[in-house]
UniProtKB/TrEMBL annotation:
This is 3-methylcrotonyl-CoA carboxylase. It comes from Pseudomonas tritici. Pfam families: BT_MCC_alpha. Signal peptide: none annotated. Residues 32-86 form the Methylcrotonyl-CoA carboxylase alpha-subunit BT domain.
Length: 91
């Protein structure tokens, strides 16, 4: 809506391809909040089981419970460590 050609009603089927670089800038690095939310969402999306191995909290004898996930999005990779109910970023 803020593009001058759009405001001047210079619209046709070639509008987006013609102004693609201005309308769809190259995405930057994904934020820490994105990676934390992605890791948490992934863990919540796993099916819930009822057996002894259904616990997804990352049980460790004598160590804090944590789960490490290697996530990838749009060519970017991160290691997200979920400790309890919090996500911590590594790398």
């Amino acid at each position: 809506i803020g593009h001058p050609a759009f405001a001047a009603a210079e619209l046709d089927t070639g509008f987006i391809p013609r102004y693609q670089d201005e309308l769809l800038p190259t995405p930057g690095a994904l934020s820490d909040e994105f990676w934390q939310a992605a890791g948490s969402a992934f863990m919540q999306s796993l099916p819930v089981g009822d057996g002894p191995w259904a616990n997804r909290q990352g049980f460790r004898v004598g160590l804090p419970a944590e789960v490490s996930l290697h996530l990838s999005c749009n060519g970017q990779d991160r290691l997200v460590t979920l400790a309890g109910h919090t996500a911590q970023l590594c790398g």
